[in-house]
Every structure is written in C-alpha cells, then in structure tokens.
C-alpha cells in the first residue's frame, strides 16, 4: 500500500489529461432539429452555458490538485460546427461549416485558456497546459490536400446529406467510403483514426499556439 504520502507523491508525478466538453455541446446544448431551440438553449445563453461547463471543469481540476495532482493538460473544443451531423441538422452549405456554432466554440476556448492562466497563477507549484484542437483541425479543413485528405466535411460511414445521420452501426442503412484515411470524419460526429494520430502528434511535440505553454512530452518531463 502506498499510503497517503506515497499516493500524493505518485499523483504529483502523474500527467492528467482533460478532454471534455464536446458531448455537453453536441448531444445536449446543440441537440435540436434545427428549427426550435434545445431545452438547454431555453435555459442558458451561450455565455451562461460556457460558464457552467468551465466552472465545473475548474472544480474538478481543483479537487485533483487538492489530492496531489501537479501536471495537468486541458484540451480545447474542436470545430463542432463542421461536424457532418451539425451541418445536416442546420442545412449547411456543401462547402462551409456552421459558423454560429464555431463562434460559440471559439468563445469557449478563449475562456478556457483564461481559466487555465488563472489556475496557474493560483497554483504556482503546479503546471497547467492548454492543447488547441480547433486551430489545427481548422487548418486541415482549409487545406485538406496538405495533410492527405480529400473529404473533410462529410463522414466516411453513414447516410443522409454529408453522411450526417447516426446510422453507421445499423445494417442496411449506411454506406461506407472506400478509403477512410482520406476522410476527416469517420461518421456523423467522430473523427477518423488518421486525424486522431495527427492531432496527438501535435499535442506530443507541437509548439505554440498548438500547445500553451508546454506540449505533452515537455509536460511529462517536468520534475
């Protein structure tokens, strides 16, 4: 048994990785037929919902800090307005994302980074880093061929416009592309393994502004 002292020492050397928020938006706040607001949208403005999520995230981080955690990486939200499901629901253009959603995401990410700065100021004996998913995925969507992609706005597997319907696991109701490595999205909301690998590589060895102030490799090496 490690005991309390040994456990705190282990937690202090461990790296904690927070990648939260996407489902809170995609399957809750943005859960609508595109014609009427979702239940949460009738209860919270975008800024209020943003504050709710971030306040809860900071609370959980503070709890881990109190237990001994000292190295923490927090991931920002990706381009949720480019998800095939959101583009289908909101009858998006074949070549563009839903800007109103991405605007909310950008606001969240800015506020998240500010919260991380505040956490760092409050706990100088800990190290916090921000990992920016949005910036990189946005660059892939703008220049897909530079990263080996051919389709960055529709799912490889699914049905409906942009393959934006969640039918990929239902036999007889979906179609699958020939080469998923040429797609950014696997289905209506999930990325392909290819883009996942590219994102993690950015997180592991990237520099500002993809990782602020440390990438995961640097954070892991912090004493």
TrEMBL record:
GO MF, one example: hydrolase activity, acting on ester bonds
Keyword vocabulary terms for this entry: Hydrolase
Family membership noted in the UniProt record: Belongs to the 'GDSL' lipolytic enzyme family.
Protein's recorded name: GDSL esterase/lipase
Organism per entry: Ceratopteris richardii (Triangle waterfern)
